[in-house]
Amino acid sequence: MEEMSASPAPEMGGETAPAQPQAGGRRTQLKIVRESVESLSRDVGSLRRSSEASAKKLEAHMKSLRKELGAHTRSKDLGEHAKSHRADTKRLENQLATLRKELATFKSQMTKEAAKSRAREEAALARFAAKVKAAEPKKLRTKVSKKKR
Predict the structure, then answer these.
(1) 3-state secondary structure of 17
(2) What distances in angstroms separate CA 5 from CA 2, 9, 23, 59, one per listed residue?
(3) Is 129 left (phi over 0), alpha (psi -120 to 50) or beta?
(4) Structural domain count of the chain
(5) What is the pLDDT of residue 145?
(6) Angle in degrees, CA 16, 22, 25, rounded to 5
(7) What letters, b where the CB count within 10 A reaches 16 and e where it falls short, cover 34-70?
(8) What is the per-residue pLDDT for 56?
(9) Cα angle 60, 67, 48; round to 5
(10) 9, 22 Cβ separation under 8 angstroms
(11) Residue 141, pLDDT above cutoff 60
(12) Is the model more confident about 63 or about 6?
């Protein structure tokens, strides 16, 4: 359209020289614009390719970070589990020590009770035996003396 408006001007005024540079200037401007558009298109394409490459690198990096985080989380969990296990083990060892002490105390009490019981039994048997011995000789003497006479 600009070329159409430029062509009637030389016919009216007879100025052909300024129209030529304008047309040539416009062509040059169009050529520059086309080159700029092509350059921008190439830049956009290369930017897109480099952006895709960057995105892939970032995705790979994110993947490795996730793996490291997972390993770290697992190691943290294992650390916490080990700490918990140590605490449980210590608690159980303390309970075991307490139970052993209670068992030893119970055994000593049982031994003492058994000794007391044996002593009472022996004392009762001794009293009974003394009563029996005291009663037997009289009966035997009386029986023996009857037989001898």
Answers:
(1) coil
(2) 5, 7, 11, 56
(3) alpha
(4) 1
(5) 56
(6) 140
(7) eeeeeeeeeeeeeeeeeeeeeeeeeeeeeeeeeeeee
(8) 92
(9) 15
(10) no
(11) no
(12) 63
* 25 token code pair: 């200037």
19 near 10, Cβ under 8 Å?
yes
**Amino acid 22: pLDDT:** 54
The two tokens of residue 135 are 């009663």
- Can you tell me whether residue 136 is helix, strand or coil? helix
Q: What is the 3-state secondary structure (H, E, C) of 57-112?
A: HHHHHHHHHHHHHHHHHHHHHHHHHHHHHHHHHHHHHHHHHHHHHHHHHHHHHHHH
Cβ burial, residue 9 (10 Å; 0-12/13-18/19+): middle
pLDDT (0 to 100) of residue 147: 55
Please give the structure tokens belonging to residue 26. 């416009």
Domain span including residue 47: 2-148
Q: Is the pLDDT of residue 79 over 50?
A: yes
Residue type at 118? R
